[in-house]
Amino acid sequence: MVSSTITFNNIVLIAGINAAHHLYGMSDMTPYESCVSPACGVVWPAKDVSQHTRPAVNVLKPSPSSSPPIGFSYPQAPIFHLNEEIDLQYTSGWYYWADHDTAQHIDERDHLLRITTPPSVQPTSSENGDPLIHAIPGMVQMPPGIPFVHVLDHKDMITIACLHTLNSLSLYPDGGTICNLANELMNITWNGLSRDGKQYPPVFDLDGLKRNDCSAVPALDSHSPDGSYNIASTVSQGHGQGIVLPAVQAATDDAQIVMGATNKCLHGLYRSIMPKMISKTEWEAIEFNAIDNNVIGFGGLEPNNTGLQMNVSSVMNGDSLADAIGNVQGSWHVDKSDDPSHWTLMTLLLRLPPGKCFVHYSMSDIHFSIMEFRK
Questions:
Q1: Are 179 and 170 in contact (CB under 8 A)?
Q2: Any idea where the domains of the chain sit in the sequence?
Q3: Cα separation, 124 vs 242, whole angstroms
Q4: DSSP secondary structure string, 227-283?
Q5: Which long-range contacts (CB under 8 A, 24 or more apart) does 294-298 make?
Q6: How would you classify the pairing of strands 366-374 and 80-82?
C-alpha cells in the first residue's frame, strides 16, 4: 500500500507552542510567563547561524476572513511584520512579529476552544488532475525557515510557530546531517529498517502495533494501519498530573528494534532542528528545565520531548484526517497534558499520487503521522 520512494522536499517540519497547562516542577506560571525572551536576549553563536537572506516580504497580511458557523470560530492571523535588522536571537536572523495583548488571553482561549476548519482547506484539483491551492481565509502563508513570534505587551517575545523544509534547513552548517537523519527516517517509514542483513517491516506495519485509547479503529476486513499510536512514553491517569510510563505497545523483538530506531532518529532531528525554530533564550530555558527537573525524554540521553505520537491515515477521495483516525484526534482539540513552556515538533512525511502518503511525527509530545492518498 505504501511505495518505497519519497523525495527530501516532501518532508516538512513544524514547531508550534503548546497552549495548555501541564507543568513539570515549574511554578504555576501562565503560558505567557513560562518561556519569554527579553528584547535584547542571548544570541546564537556565528557557527549556528544560517545563510538565510532577508525575506522579500516585509508585511504578511491575512487573506480575507469568512464567517464561521454559529457557535464556532475560524483561525484568524494578525498582521505580521518582518524585523528591520538581522537579530541573532534566532539562527535565521529574521522573524515575523505581531503584537499580542496578554490581558486578552481569556478571549483567546475561548476562541481556540470553539475553533473549526475554515473553507478552502480540503484539497481540490482541476479537470486534468492538477492540484488547486486556495488561500485559507484569515490566514497567512508561512515562509520556510522564518520563525513567527508574538510581542507580549510591547516588550517580551515568544515564538509561536516556525516551518522548515529540508531546503530551508540546508542553509545551516549541519544541513547535511539533518538530511541524513531525514533520509533514515523515511527509509524506516516507507521501506522498513535494514540492519545486520535483516529487513524489518515499516514502522506503521509492525505486527501487534497497538492504537491509543482515543484512536478510531478501522474495520477488521480493511486491514488498514490507520490510527494513532504512542511509541515512546505515555502518562497514566488517576495520579495527579500523571506518572510517565513506557507506552503500552508491541513487544516483539522486531517491533522494539524498529521503534527504537525511529525514536533515536527523531531524537536526533529534534536536537538538530528545534534550535533553528526558537530563540536562544527559549532554547536555553527548555534545556535548563529538562536537566534541572530530570525530565525523562526518549531516543537518547540529551534533553528531548517526553512523548512520541504516530498518526497513520489513508485518505481517499479528499477524505479528512478525522475520517481516517477518528474525530477525537483527527479534529481540532485541546490537549490538557501539554507543557506550556515547551514546543511540539511535528514531522510530516508526504507522498503524492498515485499512492500519496502523509506521515506526521509530533514531538512534545513528538507526533508522527503517516497519511496515504489514493484515487
A1: yes
A2: 8-374
A3: 43
A4: EEEE-SEEE-SSSTT--EEE-----SHHHHHHHHHHHHHHHHHHHHHGGGTS-HHHH
A5: 295/24, 296/233, 296/244, 297/267, 298/232, 298/233, 298/263, 298/267
A6: unpaired
Cell 508522527 -> residue: 368
Kindly state the cell numbers that stand for 97: 512579529
Question: In the numeric block, which cell numbers belong to residue 79?
Answer: 498582521
> Phi and psi dihedrals of 47, rounded to 5?
-65, -20
Give residue for cell 510510563.
245
Per-residue pLDDT of the chain (375 residues; tens, 9 = 90+): 333 333 333 445 555 444 333 333 334 444 444 444 444 458 999 999 999 999 999 999 999 999 999 999 999 999 999 999 999 999 999 999 999 998 988 888 888 889 888 887 776 777 776 767 788 899 999 999 999 999 999 888 999 999 999 999 999 999 999 999 999 998 998 888 988 889 999 888 888 888 877 777 776 666 777 888 888 765 555 555 555 556 667 778 888 899 889 999 999 999 999 999 999 999 999 999 888 888 888 888 898 888 888 888 776 555 667 777 777 777 777 776 677 778 888 888 776 555 454 444 444 444 444 443 333
**Strand duo 198-199 + 194-195: pairing:** antiparallel
Centroid of chain to Cα 202: 21
Cell of residue 122, nine digits? 480540503
